[in-house]
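Run log // design_07
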């Protein structure tokens, strides 16, 4: 299993890295509390607060991001 940044979830300290919004490409150095994580086809995808708010209904309806 992988953590926020793609490394192992074995309890070890995650490697430094950044997150990228899967919709608009915005980046963040650290996980932000306003970003949304979605599991799509076995892959974790992260969405910035702007994209998450814009597509809230689709996210709550569990539509894959390809539909929005």
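design_07 sequence
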């Amino acid at each position: 299993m992988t953590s926020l940044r793609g490394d192992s979830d074995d309890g070890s300290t995650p490697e430094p890295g950044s997150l990228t919004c899967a919709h608009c490409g915005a980046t963040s150095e650290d996980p932000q509390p306003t970003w949304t994580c979605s599991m799509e086809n076995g892959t974790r995808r992260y969405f910035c607060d702007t994209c998450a708010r814009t597509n809230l209904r689709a996210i709550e309806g569990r539509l894959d991001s390809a539909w929005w």
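Confidence is low (pLDDT under 50) at residues 7-15.
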